[in-house]
Amino acid sequence: MKTSFFINRESYVRQLVKLAAFTLLATPAFAQTYTVTDLGTFGPNSNGNYSVAFCINSSGQVAGESSAPSSQRSDPAFLYSNGQLVNIGTLGGDVGQPRGINTSGQIAGYSTLRSGSYHAFLYTSGQMTDIGTLGADYAVAYGLNDAGQVVGNSAHPGGQDHAFLYSNGVMTDLGTLGGDTSNAYGINNLGVIAGYSYNSAGDFLGFIYQNGTMTPLGTLGGSWSIAYAINDHNQIAGQAYTRGNRAAHAFRLTDGQMVDLGSLGGSGSWGLAINNSGTVVGFATTRVNEYHAFVSTNGARMQDLNRLIPANSGWVLGQANGINDAGQIVGYGTIRGQTHAFLLTPQ
Asked: What does CATH list as the number for 9-346?
C-alpha cells in the first residue's frame, strides 16, 4: 500500500492537483499581513504551466516542483534562491519533488527514475543522489534536519511500506505501531521523528519516534491522526479526527496536549508545517467547500491567508506547505488562472 498524503497525496505524485476557483475575502486590519512573491515557473509543457513550493529554510531558500518546457511531461525539482529559480533536475525521470530543505541548502525529496519508479533523493552541493530503498523499488523522502538526516517511506520486497531514517549513508526501517504501514514526514534537529502508522486494530495514528521507540500521539477524540511536521521543541502539526469522526481538523501538539485548530468553515483542515515559534500553516475547506491556505500562531485558531494579503493581488492561496522561523510561508495558489508557487513575507 502506498502512503496517502494530504488530499490523496500519493496521486499528486503522478498528477498536479488542480485548484478550484476560490473566493477572496477582505483583509482584517488587526492581523499580520504579508507581501506575495510569485516564484514563477520554468515554462509550459504538456502538463501546463505550473509550480508548487513545498519547503523553506531560515535563509529564505525555497524548494519545489515546476513544469519545464518540453514536448513531453517534464516536472523537475527547483531551488529558489536570491530571486532565481534554479532547475536541480531529477534522478533521470520526468518528475522531481523536493519536500524538505535545511539551513545549509540540502534538499530531500523524491524523483522518478528512467524506469518510472520513485526513489528518495538527497541534494547536496549541486548533486542529486539516490539514497536507496528498504529493498523494493520504491522510496520517497519528506523531511530532513540540519545534520542531513532524511526521513520518509519505502517499500519492502514483501510489499509493505515502512517509515525510514537515512543517516550517514544507511537507511533504517523504523517499524510500525503493529500494522503493516508507516510513514515518517518530519525530523527535527534533535533527531526526533514524526509521522503516522497503522496499528494492529487497523487504525492509523500519528507517532513520535525517539530513542528507538515509536509512540502513538492520540487523536482529537476520533479514531485516527497523522503527524506531518515537528519543530525543535517537539511541537507537532498534523490532522486528526474529532469526536465521533465527524470532522478531520488540523492540530498543534505541545507537551502531549493536542489542540484542535478548527477550520475555515468547512469540515476539514490539514496542519502541514510548524516553525520554532509554534506557528502552524496548512490548508482547510471553507463553507463553500473550497481549499484555502491558513496560518495559526501559537495558541490561536487559524486565519485564512487570503485575508492577510493585498485585496488586489490577484492571488488565491490554496495551500501553505512550509514556514520558517522568520514567518515566511510558501505554498501554491492560483494567479491569472495558473497554479504557481508563492512566497509570503510578513510586513
From this structure: 2.130.10.150
